[in-house]
Design goal:
The protein is built from 16 helices and 2 strands. The chain has 371 residues and is mainly α. A hairpin with a 2-residue loop joins strand 1 and strand 2.
Length: 371
């Protein structure tokens, strides 16, 4: 059976096929609606618009008395904002971060593994030992530390608190009777609050905080997540690509290209990379759900996507606070959680199906039987 026949069999009416259809529907709904949900009207994005008088209304199809009948398909949140609109926006943000982080991971892992495998020898040994060291570090802790450090750097850039503190200390040391050493100077300022307040007011004028808009700050937070997630999730792919390159670089077609004078760059792009597409494609489908889950986890902890920009992670975090014995607004937690779970499950089904369709060893027996 031909390769396209294997794809039709794997992605027919099977878990992989159903997962692919579900994934395409969710991606089209979330990513396709982003221009509409991010549209700004009267200075407020659509995903952040709502009427507090309509707060915590249940979905329109949920049984309720006529007095509290909702017109919103998935209900409203604590501020009267449509859960459907925010779930679509959060899905677009989470999927976008997951796909972009996976592409960053694939780029780094492919380049790193290809260089290590093609160079061989001492270069390969040193590069792989670096990977072994990184493997020994707690993965999720490393992602959290990178996200926290990046957020701290952004906050320092915006507030300029360190530069303002240096300005205060420099000018306070020039006041008559003030000590010149910093520890003693800090104590002296606490003992002279009038001088401290005067210098602090002057410092705020001399070193004012930088002003950035909310969209720019959200873009910086998303960029931080991309660097934190994509920058540490390439280790497995680098090993896979290294092994593939080691097995391919001594093949006759590569040796012929090398004998013809082809540069290493041309050999990689024209001869090696086409043979690496299969493992890379499978890795991408298995890395995207991991990146989405990590983004949701970080946003759930409050160090990922910051409100009011929604993501499935911070929507679930907000919804968790609404589950209590007195008034359980379940839809605020159920909607993002179900969407996240279905998306991750669909991605894993697609990844397994793609692996089965591409890997000849997994389909050799079936194809022989069909023949």
């Amino acid at each position: 059976m031909a390769k396209d026949g294997r794809f039709r069999r794997v992605f027919g009416f099977t878990p992989a096929g159903v997962g692919l259809a579900t994934l395409l529907f969710i991606a089209a709904a979330c990513l396709g609606s982003l221009p509409w949900t991010l549209d700004v009207r009267d200075g407020i994005p659509r995903y952040n618009q709502g009427d507090p008088a309509e707060a915590r209304l249940p979905p329109s199809w949920w049984p309720s008395d006529d007095e509290h009948k909702s017109k919103y398909l998935l209900g409203t949140d604590q501020l009267g904002r449509s859960v459907l609109v925010r779930a679509l926006t959060g899905g677009g943000i989470s999927l976008g971060i997951g796909i972009a982080a996976a592409l960053i991971s694939v780029t780094i892992g492919t380049a790193y593994g290809a260089v290590a495998g093609y160079a061989g020898g001492a270069v390969d040994g040193v590069m792989m030992r670096i990977v072994d060291v990184l493997y020994g570090l707690p993965y999720i802790l490393l992602v959290v530390l990178l996200a926290v450090a990046s957020n701290a750097a952004i906050d320092e850039y915006v507030t300029r608190s360190r530069a303002r503190t240096d300005w205060i200390m420099t000018n306070a040391a020039q006041v008559e009777g003030a000590p010149s050493q910093r520890p003693a100077l800090s104590v002296w300022l606490d003992e002279h609050p009038a001088v401290r307040d005067e210098i602090a007011a002057r410092a705020l004028v001399a070193v004012p905080p930088r002003r950035i808009s909310q969209p720019v700050r959200s873009a910086l937070d998303i960029g931080t997540l991309l660097v934190a997630i994509g920058g540490v999730s390439w280790l497995t792919l680098s090993r896979v690509i290294r092994g593939q390159v080691l097995s391919l670089k001594n093949q006759p077609f590569v040796e012929a290209a090398r004998a013809a004078g082809a540069t290493p760059r041309r050999i990689f792009l024209r001869h090696l990379l086409p043979n690496l597409v299969g493992p890379i494609a499978v890795y991408v489908t298995l890395t995207v759900p991991q990146a989405i889950l990590q983004e949701s986890f970080l946003s759930f902890l409050g160090i990922g996507v910051k409100p009011p920009m929604p993501s499935w992670g911070n929507l679930a975090a907000d919804g968790l606070n609404e589950i209590n014995p007195y008034a359980s607004h379940w839809w605020l937690l159920a909607v993002p959680s179900v969407l996240l779970g279905v998306t991750l499950l669909s991605l894993n089904f697609v990844g397994e199906g793609l692996r089965e369709a591409i890997d000849p060893k997994r389909t050799l027996g079936r194809d022989a039987g069909d023949a």
